[in-house]
Amino acid sequence: MKEAVTIGVAAKLLGVSPETLRRWDRAGTLKTTRDQRNRRLVSAEEIERLRGAPTRHLTGDSFSARNRFPGTIRSVERDGVMAVVEIEAGPHLVTSVITRDAADELGLVPGMKAVATVKATSVMVMRGEQ
């Protein structure tokens, strides 16, 4: 890649969204030029400069959720149709409210290894370590 490419192509090469590159351009973090159609262009040098930064958000896994907290179950409180599960994950204490059926099916008990997976505002619990 010797010449400049459009924001969309640069975004794919860098693994970010085109809007991220537009924000970086407005903030002065990214240097762009404009073509005759007024499209932003990113030089090969700029792409290489930005690639030098550490790769972000790669998990090396086939599971899409990124925010995982492996730890040990501290407590499981079953009441009616719900269960409250507390997982001690390093310095964090993650609390999740799941169905009692799910807690029973996973066989969740204090002392067991588990992973709390946070996706948006929900917390999922997976048995075992990741």
Task: Describe the SSE topology.
Elements: E1 5-6, H1 7-14, H2 18-27, E2 32-34, E3 40-42, H3 44-51, E4 67-79, E5 82-89, E6 92-99, H4 100-106, E7 113-119, E8 122-127
Antiparallel strand pairs: 1-3, 2-3, 4-5, 4-7, 5-6, 7-8
Please describe what this structure looks like.
Helix content is 25%, strand content 38%. The chain is α+β, with helices and mostly antiparallel strands. It has two domains: 5-51, Multidrug-efflux Transporter Regulator, Chain: A, Domain 2 (Orthogonal Bundle); 67-127, Beta Barrel (OB fold (Dihydrolipoamide Acetyltransferase, E2P)), CATH 2.40.50.100. Strands 6-5-4-7-8 form a five-stranded antiparallel β-sheet. Helix 1 (7-14) crosses helix 2. It is rod-shaped and about 65 Å long.
Task: Provide a concise account of the structure shown.
It contains four helices and eight strands, in the order E-H-H-E-E-H-E-E-E-H-E-E. With 130 residues, it is of the alpha+beta class. Strands 6-5-4-7-8 form a five-stranded antiparallel β-sheet. A three-stranded antiparallel β-sheet has the order 1-3-2.
CATH topology of the largest domain: OB fold (Dihydrolipoamide Acetyltransferase, E2P)
Main beta-sheet annotation: 5 strands, antiparallel
- Looking at the overall shape, the CATH architecture of the largest domain is Beta Barrel
Strand order of the largest sheet: 6-5-4-7-8
Helical content, roughly?
A: 25-40%
| Integer count of domains | 2
Full CATH superfamily name of the largest domain: RNA polymerase II/Efflux pump adaptor protein, barrel-sandwich hybrid domain
Tell me the distance between the termini. Answer: 38 Å
SSE order, as H and E?
Answer: EHHEEHEEEHEE
Strand content: 35-45%
Task: Identify low-pLDDT runs.
Answer: none
Gyration radius, rounded: 22 Å
